[in-house]
Design a protein that fits this description.
- With about 400 residues, the chain is of the alpha/beta class.
- It contains 13 helices and 15 strands.
- The strands form four sheets. It has a seven-stranded mixed β-sheet with strand order 2-10-9-8-7-3-4, sandwiched between helices.
- The longest helix has 23 residues.
């Protein structure tokens, strides 16, 4: 049957593919230095440790771990995750509030499925994670961007938008935000929690980078200020242990909303793979996560330092963030320089990144770009950023 656009659902007809995934097709080119992805470093992955834990999990659970399981998830993972989130992020949760999911992206998808009708308003940071933008569009949400600065969401501006649009949901990445690397300040976290309770909307707090901190002090989660159950905290073990395991968790304080998300998951994948859940649960049980994070954060700090050092030598007028953690640096090119045109030239020089326009719900901002440092060693970062800086100087002439 020849492809016919009219056969495609209205939900997907206007949604393009991920710009990052499209760029990934170029990365097999020999010698390519990529700053385009958001993957953890290959050296941050520990196949021997995961293999040992997996074998121990199979020995402990036997054939049962290879069977179907409850959509609500493996009890041991729910308990360990609740302890971890409450201790490290101040999330108000118990095991009964935890829903294991396949990455925090699935948590947001299930939340949208449970809450959003076509035309319902969702507020989000601008720029924000492009995967979240795609998901909101698929569910027909009316996306309203919230202005941000170095401290994250600007509260006064958000209050104006809340009063004007009466949103059902707000999506926020509070820590080392994707794509900017910025962190929402402590007082603004509390203000958002109060705003949600006062106006009756749900906050989706997407926090998958929280423990990738290389400097400064950790801040309490938005959820820690939530006294009435308006904040759904979404976390993931992808950036910490393994993205391939696809294990994350949603802490959902409202039992009714949690039940609807469980029903939504039943029709998506029945349940997250039990073996993968058991691997993560035992990884936490054995106390492996803390020393692992300490090791990989030390490496990432050197990589971030290498990228910031290279950016300091970029042409005058280049502006960029200086994050204290996470995986990304955000840059704005001098003047009206176009990042897409720069990318086309950069690929010829075996360098890749993601133009920033894709992270804005309304597009525009063509002179911005996102740079990932976790997949390259410091020497490669220096080399690739040197090529990029030279291209910017050439285009600026």
């Amino acid at each position: 049957m020849p492809f016919n656009e009219n056969l495609i659902s209205s939900a997907l007809r206007g949604v393009s593919g991920s710009a990052i995934r499209d760029i990934f097709k170029l990365l097999n080119k020999p010698g390519m230095i990529s700053f385009a992805g958001g993957n953890p470093s290959m050296r941050a992955l520990e196949p021997d440790a995961v293999k040992a834990v997996a074998c121990e999990a199979i020995d402990r659970y036997g054939a049962a771990i290879l069977q179907y399981g409850a959509t609500e998830g493996l009890p041991e993972l729910r308990q360990r995750t609740a302890q971890y989130l409450s201790q490290t992020a101040g999330v108000r949760c118990t095991a009964e509030n935890i829903l294991p999911v396949q990455g925090s992206s699935q948590a947001f998808d299930l939340l949208l499925k449970a809450l959003i009708n076509p035309g319902d308003v969702v507020l989000c940071e601008s720029p924000t994670f492009l995967g979240a933008i795609q998901a909101m569009r698929i569910y027909g949400a009316r996306i309203i961007p919230m202005p941000t600065d170095e401290g994250g969401v600007i509260i006064d501006e958000a209050e104006v938008l809340v009063k004007k649009y009466r949103p059902k949901l707000m999506y926020v990445i509070p820590t080392f935000q994707n794509p900017t690397g910025r962190t929402l300040s402590g007082e603004r976290r509390k203000a958002l929690a109060i705003m949600a309770a006062k106006n009756g909307f749900v906050i989706a707090e997407d926090d998958p980078y929280r423990d990738l901190r290389y400097a400064g002090d950790a801040l309490p989660s938005i959820s820690s200020y939530d006294e009435e159950g308006w904040v759904v905290y979404m976390s993931s073990y992808s950036k910490y242990i393994s993205p391939g395991l696809r294990v994350g968790a949603a802490a959902v304080p409202d039992a009714g909303l949690l039940r609807k998300m469980v029903i939504g998951k039943q029709s998506s994948d029945v349940h997250s793979p039990l073996l993968n859940q058991a691997i993560v649960a035992m990884y936490l049980e054995k106390g492996l996560l803390k020393p692992h994070l300490e090791r990989i954060c030390a490496d990432y700090r050197h990589q971030l330092d290498a990228m910031l050092a290279a950016l300091s030598a970029f042409p005058e007028g280049t502006v960029y963030t200086r994050p204290q953690g996470g995986l990304f640096v955000w840059a704005r090119l001098p003047g009206e320089m176009n990042a897409q045109a720069l990318l086309e030239r950069a690929i010829e020089q075996n360098v890749a990144f993601v133009p920033g326009t894709h992270f804005y719900p309304d597009g525009g901002h063509e002179n911005t770009l996102r740079l990932n440092f976790s997949m390259q060693e410091p020497a490669a970062i220096a080399e690739g950023m040197g090529r990029l800086g030279a291209l910017i100087k050439d285009l600026k002439k």
